Amino acid sequence: MSLSKIPLSFSWAGLLPVGVTAFMVAYEYTGLPQVALAASGLAVAAVAVFSFGVRASRVAFVLIGLALVIWAALTTTNWFAATGTAMQRGAMVMALFTALSVIRNAAMTSPAIVECGRFLARQRPGLRYSALTIGGHLFGLILLYGSISRLGTLATESTAREPDREVRIQRTRRMMIAIQRGFASTLCWSPLGFSMIITVSVVPGASWGAAALPGIFSAVMVLAIGWGLDALYKPRKAVLAKAAETERWSEQLRPLLVLLGVVLLGVALLHAVTGVEVIGAVMSLVPVVAVLWIAFQQPPEEQTRLRHLCQRSTQFVTRELPSYRGEIVLLFMAGFIGSLGAFLLVPLVQGLGLDLQAVPPWIIVAAMVWIIPLTGQLGMNPILAVSLLVPVLPSPETMGISPTALVVAITGGWALSGATSPFTASVLLAAALGKVSPWRAGIGWNGIYALVAGSALTLWALTLSFLW
């Protein structure tokens, strides 16, 4: 929905997710249950308000959540506490989305970032895939799936002037695939992504510090596999295209690399110095960096920096956040349903006599790489799938494996889902920009890639489960 068409009734409802973020940050640093309760209450209020302006599929998630609450109340004695925990999980997801939306808002109006994207899209054919997949990774660390929108738009602009229709179609497809895979690889390790933060929160004994390096190796591996498949399958006709600008890499990428350095090192430092969890460091640091970034951007003529900052802040709260109401409802409900559903599912599995502790650990680790992308094909959000399934599994300690191995398997599967599921925002954006169906942009473009990368990720996760 266009920002200019936000209904007046939703305008100031954007204050609700902002309040959720503020309370969740305070909770991360204080641990006070009253603060978490306030965040949960505001999050439920936000979902209640925004549910009146979203698609029926989003409302269906709200109804499923209400049905689970009723089921829990009728069948368990501690349903109230479980519902509160689920509300807190949903509030955490909403707060993280809001915090990351702030820096995405700042990046979208930065001339240096826009020029960096154009520079990557202008590369000669032989270098363009590598430039865009690395760019998709770097942009994805900050913009999340907004990286596909930003880089994809610039990429399609660069191909629009190509007179040969076949070359134009093939070039657009390859550019979108590169950006998709670059973004998906961030899900293997990024401390700013839902994949790592949710996974670490549900796997007992896991931490981002322990999983970061193995996750980075996963990302490098899937990036290399994507590059290899592109080199194998790229059409030879595209080589005839006119070469483009390839100079000034360090100059053009410097603003993005500096921003990434500030955010990633700042999060790691804040985590190490204060002891706060990574999600608390992300939610508290990222909005501050974004506000400072906007303050240093050149304001319009006849407008002071302070007035420009106030205007941008007001527009973000009253226009941009309400425009994301569908995503806000979906993300909250995915976290809520996953948490409460797992609470109900664990005794149900035990009652059926299913002893997952009897399953060899290597089978569980390998299965997690594949289950998440498979459920993604059925429309299940990875947040929901991970929150629902992982609590049912035996703990890593019980299985005799490192928590890191399970984290690597889950985030690897999450990355595959991000590249193939026709229901994810990343694939939907790529499909819209590439003018193809979501199924084509997902499993059609990345099916072979998912099989090869999934096999490599499975071997890597199993190696960690035996050696780490």
Descriptive tags:
single chain; 468 residues
Biggest sheet statistics: none
Report the C-alpha radius of gyration, rounded: 22 Å
What fraction of residues sit in β-strands?
under 5%
Quickly count the domains: 1
Which structural class do you get from the secondary structure elements?
mainly alpha
Low-confidence stretches: 238-244
The number of helical segments is 21
Shape: globular
Question: Average pLDDT, to the nearest integer?
Answer: 90
Order of helices and strands: HHHHHHHHHHHHHHHHHHHHH
How many angstroms separate the termini?
Answer: 47 Å
Helical fraction: over 70%
The count of β-strands is: 0
Task: Explain what this protein looks like in three dimensions.
The protein is mainly alpha-helical and 468 residues long. It has one domain (3-467). The protein is 78% helix and 0% strand. It contains 21 helices and no strands. The protein has helices spanning 8-11, 15-30, 33-50, 56-75, 79-108, 111-121, 125-143, 146-159, 165-186, 194-202, 208-233, 249-274, 278-296, 305-323, 325-351, 361-377, 382-389, 396-399, 403-420, 425-434, 438-467. Helix 3 crosses helix 15, helix 12 crosses helix 13 and helix 19 runs antiparallel to helix 21 (438-467). The longest helix has 30 residues, at 79-108. The chain is globular, with a radius of gyration of 22 Å. The N and C termini lie far apart (47 Å). 50% of the residues are buried. This is H+/citrate symporter. Keywords: Membrane, Transmembrane, Transmembrane helix. The chain crosses the membrane at residues 6-27, 34-54, 60-81, 93-114, 183-203, 209-233, 253-272, 278-296, 328-350, 362-393, 405-431, 443-467.
